[in-house]
């Protein structure tokens, strides 16, 4: 417990101190997000804020000691951060950014973190064999881009990531995976230290540096947490923990595919954009999405403690409720002429 408290305080204080310094660095390097038609900020805001989260997280782990089995996470997440910094400075083409994400994911996999088996809730174990690599790769790259896509409003990606991390932490604790908390605690504290500077009106953005780091790290921690007991339900739990950005990503892919647009072409049709269109303020949109995320997190924890039948009922009812909400929001925007 003492180590957890030290990790939390060191990460929190480091992030609070480093964020203003990163803000100055971003301005000096020209890493500043200028207003444009697909961004909601009305004035230039420095980016690269993810560096403060990253360094606070890594610093805490290094100074207070970390098990060698987590070295793969440190190295691969560092590659993701490097990719994010380059992207924030020079706006890399989508395919090159995707390639960098694949390299980072493969690094983590080759260093021993991958989904190797899935247990059937009703009994039996399925060893993935050669499928372990592509499935783990798809998961890591998918979660990385999921958080990256939702980073469109002040404080949004940071808050949703905290909720997702706490959810994974609670379930890891219930499973007795206490070593996973040594990753969750400093990650949450590092985001909390950054969040006051990122809330509306934001003084700094986390940029792709932060959103990709958070997505990749959350995806990796979820794998580490469930390495011993991967089941269909635990996969569902991981998806629900990041339910809002996951669903937003799925809808974005479908929307762009149906419209004949490139999958990586940015637009202003994400959930937060839809909520802004109906007249909500940025802070109100953030609260709404936080509440939805907390609701999904509670469902995830509930599913973890449920049997297969109960889990299916919870998941089905949740999916129907979210689908109805999305339909009503779209219909409201249509009636308003958007």
TrEMBL record:
<feature type="transmembrane region" description="Helical">
    <location>
        <begin position="44"/>
        <end position="63"/>
    </location>
</feature>
<feature type="transmembrane region" description="Helical">
    <location>
        <begin position="312"/>
        <end position="329"/>
    </location>
</feature>
<protein>
    <submittedName>
        <fullName>UDP-GlcNAc:undecaprenyl-phosphate GlcNAc-1-phosphate transferase</fullName>
        <ecNumber>2.7.8.33</ecNumber>
    </submittedName>
</protein>
<keyword id="KW-1003">Cell membrane</keyword>
<feature type="transmembrane region" description="Helical">
    <location>
        <begin position="124"/>
        <end position="143"/>
    </location>
</feature>
<keyword id="KW-0479">Metal-binding</keyword>
<dbReference type="GO" id="GO:0044038">
    <property type="term" value="P:cell wall macromolecule biosynthetic process"/>
</dbReference>
<feature type="transmembrane region" description="Helical">
    <location>
        <begin position="92"/>
        <end position="112"/>
    </location>
</feature>
<keyword id="KW-0472">Membrane</keyword>
<dbReference type="GO" id="GO:0009103">
    <property type="term" value="P:lipopolysaccharide biosynthetic process"/>
</dbReference>
<keyword id="KW-1133">Transmembrane helix</keyword>
<keyword id="KW-0460">Magnesium</keyword>
<dbReference type="InterPro" id="IPR000715">
    <property type="entry name" value="Glycosyl_transferase_4"/>
</dbReference>
<feature type="transmembrane region" description="Helical">
    <location>
        <begin position="285"/>
        <end position="306"/>
    </location>
</feature>
<feature type="binding site">
    <location>
        <position position="148"/>
    </location>
    <ligand>
        <name>Mg(2+)</name>
    </ligand>
</feature>
<dbReference type="GO" id="GO:0071555">
    <property type="term" value="P:cell wall organization"/>
</dbReference>
<dbReference type="InterPro" id="IPR018480">
    <property type="entry name" value="PNAcMuramoyl-5peptid_Trfase_CS"/>
</dbReference>
<feature type="transmembrane region" description="Helical">
    <location>
        <begin position="219"/>
        <end position="247"/>
    </location>
</feature>
<dbReference type="GO" id="GO:0046872">
    <property type="term" value="F:metal ion binding"/>
</dbReference>
<feature type="transmembrane region" description="Helical">
    <location>
        <begin position="180"/>
        <end position="199"/>
    </location>
</feature>
<dbReference type="Pfam" id="PF00953">
    <property type="entry name" value="Glycos_transf_4"/>
</dbReference>
<dbReference type="GO" id="GO:0036380">
    <property type="term" value="F:UDP-N-acetylglucosamine-undecaprenyl-phosphate N-acetylglucosaminephosphotransferase activity"/>
</dbReference>
<feature type="transmembrane region" description="Helical">
    <location>
        <begin position="155"/>
        <end position="173"/>
    </location>
</feature>
<dbReference type="GO" id="GO:0005886">
    <property type="term" value="C:plasma membrane"/>
</dbReference>
<feature type="binding site">
    <location>
        <position position="208"/>
    </location>
    <ligand>
        <name>Mg(2+)</name>
    </ligand>
</feature>
<keyword id="KW-0812">Transmembrane</keyword>
<keyword id="KW-0808">Transferase</keyword>
<feature type="transmembrane region" description="Helical">
    <location>
        <begin position="70"/>
        <end position="86"/>
    </location>
</feature>
């Amino acid at each position: 417990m003492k180590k957890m408290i030290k990790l939390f305080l060191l990460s929190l204080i480091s992030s609070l101190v480093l964020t203003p310094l990163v803000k100055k660095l971003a301005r000096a390097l020209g890493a500043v997000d200028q207003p444009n038609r697909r961004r909601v900020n009305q004035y230039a805001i420095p980016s690269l804020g993810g560096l403060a989260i990253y360094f606070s997280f890594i610093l805490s782990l290094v100074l207070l000691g970390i098990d060698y089995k987590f070295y793969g996470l440190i190295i691969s997440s560092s590659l993701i951060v490097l990719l994010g910094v380059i992207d924030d400075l020079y706006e890399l083409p989508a395919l090159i950014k995707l390639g960098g994400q694949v390299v980072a994911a493969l690094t983590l996999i080759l260093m021993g973190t991958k989904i190797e088996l899935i247990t059937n809730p009703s009994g039996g174990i399925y060893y993935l064999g050669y499928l372990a690599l592509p499935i783990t790769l798809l998961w890591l790259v998918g979660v990385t881009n999921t958080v990256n896509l939702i980073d469109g409003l002040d404080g949004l990606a940071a808050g949703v990531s905290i909720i997702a991390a706490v959810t994974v932490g609670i379930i890891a604790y219930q499973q007795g995976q206490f070593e996973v908390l040594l990753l969750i605690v400093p990650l949450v504290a590092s985001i909390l230290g950054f969040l006051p500077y990122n809330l509306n009106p934001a003084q700094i953005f986390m940029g792709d540096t932060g959103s990709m780091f958070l997505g990749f790290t959350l995806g990796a921690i979820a794998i580490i947490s469930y390495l011993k007991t991967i089941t269909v339900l635990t996969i569902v739990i991981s998806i629900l923990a990041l339910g809002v950005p996951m669903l937003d990503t799925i809808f974005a892919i479908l929307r762009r595919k149906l419209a004949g647009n490139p999958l990586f072409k940015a637009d202003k049709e994400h959930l937060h954009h839809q909520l802004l269109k109906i007249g909500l303020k940025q802070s109100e949109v953030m609260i709404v999405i936080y509440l939805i995320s907390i609701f999904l997190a509670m469902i995830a924890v509930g599913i973890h403690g449920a049997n297969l039948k109960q889990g299916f009922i919870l998941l089905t009812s949740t999916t129907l409720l979210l689908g109805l909400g999305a339909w009503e929001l779209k219909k409201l925007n249509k009636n308003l002429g958007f």
